[in-house]
Amino acid sequence: MSNKLIITACISGAEVTKEHNPAVPYTVDEFVKEAKAAYEAGASIIHLHVRNDDGLPTQDQARYEEIINAIKKEIPDVIIQPSTGGAVGMSSEERLQPINLYPEMATLDCGTCNFGGDEIFENTENMIIEFAEKMAKFNVKPECEVFDKGMIDMALRLHKKGLIKDDNLHFDFVMGVNGGISATTRDLEFMVGSIPSNCTWTAAGVGKAAFPIAAMTIVMGGHVRIGFEDNVYLEKGVLAKSNGELVAKVVTLANLLGREIASPCEAREILGLKK
User: With contact defined as beta carbons under 8 Å apart, do 148 and 111 qualify?
Assistant: First the structure.
């Protein structure tokens, strides 16, 4: 069971647009279509940023509720993982709104990162503590999202102090982001070697690193994040027609490399979800 591969589909993100790929979802129906395609291809977790119909990213609680309910109506057993990262420049109060819906898990960004130009993705220590405390209060499992090694150290230190309340931490290594750690074999091994052995982990490669990181992660026993948030191409120069195509390619890699795919029920057991 524990060796089964959990695939997380990050179906929209906050930055990618239909100009990058026409299949990027904006409307409720488009979100349902993309979530369903990813699920049917093998994803058990939908990592969710939401948009208004015009594509503008939002953390509005009502919009999250509308889209989550629509997805759950079609695929009731899928795990929905809202982002509390939102978009650059949003306040903590804005970003935390999805937690009020009591999701099973949500992302907890564990450090500040330069995203390029003047864009700074701000996550101060006090913000991380605030987010972690609200997740604990609402019984939401945090996925510690890290862009560099120091963010792992921050998460482990806050966990040791009892401020991140989770018996078995789960990390998401987002690799290849401007301002973060590069997406190489050396750096993935370094990140994995920096967490305790009882932790679970997922890795995501941005852009052209998406499938190389996926393959390395499968071999190393971790879990994979894939989707339009990180990469819109199926292969060089070929846009993916859906998130489902990206997930299906990871499933093909997993089959070749001897990893079975976890169902949502199995993913809940592996991650120790409480619901």
Answer: yes
Q: β-strand 233-235 against 57-58: which pairing, if any?
A: unpaired
> Which strand (E) or helix (H) includes residue 35?
helix 28-41
Question: In the chain, what are the domain boundaries?
Answer: 7-270
pLDDT classification of 97: cutoffs 50, 70, 90: very high
pLDDT in tens, 8-56: 999 999 999 999 999 999 999 999 999 999 999 999 999 999 999 999 9
**Dihedral sign (CA 187, 189, 194, 195):** positive
- What tokens were used for 127? 């913000």
Question: What is the pLDDT, as a whole number, of residue 1?
Answer: 42
In CATH terms, is domain 7-270 a member of 3.30.465.10? no
Q: Is 76 exposed, middle or buried (0-12, 13-18, 19+ CB in 10 A)?
A: exposed
Nearest to 136 by CA among 99, 173, 168, 97: 99
